[in-house]
Amino acid sequence: MSEPPFAHALALFFDLDGTLVDSVPDLTAAVNVMLAQLALPQRRENQVRDWVGNGVDNLIHRALTNDMAGRADPTLFARAKPLYKAAYAEHLSAHSALYPGVREGLIRLYAAGFPMACVTNKSVEFARPLLGHLGIAQYFSTVVGGECVAHPKPAPDALVLCAERLGAPITHSLMVGDSLNDVGAARNAGCPVVCVPYGYNHGRDIREAAPDAVIDSIADLPRLLGRAA
């Protein structure tokens, strides 16, 4: 019988938005509160779904300009960012939800003894309470946000920090994500990567990024680690 493909993994790093949690409804609500306060047009949820994944600053620029590559006037951006952060704090988990299989998968992986980190370009000030509100914070030994490192994903910095905090070699860790940023960060760090196909990858099929494996659900991950229930 062949060995499971990631049987040597000692630690797991999970992206948050688009991998564990569908947060776009609340991100959209926060964006539109910000825009209303600035007397700017509202944006649709399907637009925001394509805009997320590169950190809060890029999301705000895209919302202000209605353009994936847009850069807002610096004065307008300076006014907008605190409005967005205040609005998102109010809408953090009103409509966000775990994807199917996430809770089941995390429970099994935690019971199997895997140390796990949440690694996200979202700020820790939002990531931690969101994990708590959705009832999965207890499964993560650490949370690494975009502000924790000099260069967020797709740079390797955040994954390297996760490995240090969990006490695992980066080459014997496993990144689990949904986007080109996650694949890029893993490749840059020398870490294997598994992706889910349902998340936020700017409308592109994640298979085009050539992760080491694609799984339909986090509940499928224990089998790849040799921990099938």
Strands of the biggest beta sheet: in what spatial order?
Answer: 5-4-1-6-7-8
Tell me the CATH architecture of the largest domain. 3-Layer(aba) Sandwich
Please count the helical segments. Answer: 9
Helix content: 40-55%
Report the count of strand segments. 8
Return the domain count: 2
Provide mean pLDDT, rounded: 95
What pattern of helices and strands is seen along the backbone?
Answer: EEHHHHEHEHEHEHEEH
In short:
By secondary structure, the protein is of the alpha/beta class. The protein is 40% helix and 11% strand.
Question: Your description of this structure?
Answer:
The protein is an alpha/beta fold. The protein folds into 2 domains: 11-23 and 96-224, HAD superfamily/HAD-like (Rossmann fold); 24-90, DNA polymerase, domain 1 (Orthogonal Bundle), CATH 1.10.150.240. It has helices spanning 24-37, 45-51, 56-65, 74-90, 102-111, 124-133, 157-166, 180-189, 221-224; strands at residues 11-14, 21-22, 97-98, 116-119, 142-144, 173-177, 193-195, 213-214. Strand 4 (116-119), helix 6 and strand 5 form a beta-alpha-beta unit. Helix 1 packs across helix 4 (74-90) and helix 3 (56-65) crosses helix 4. The longest helix is centred in the middle third of the chain and has 17 residues, at 74-90.
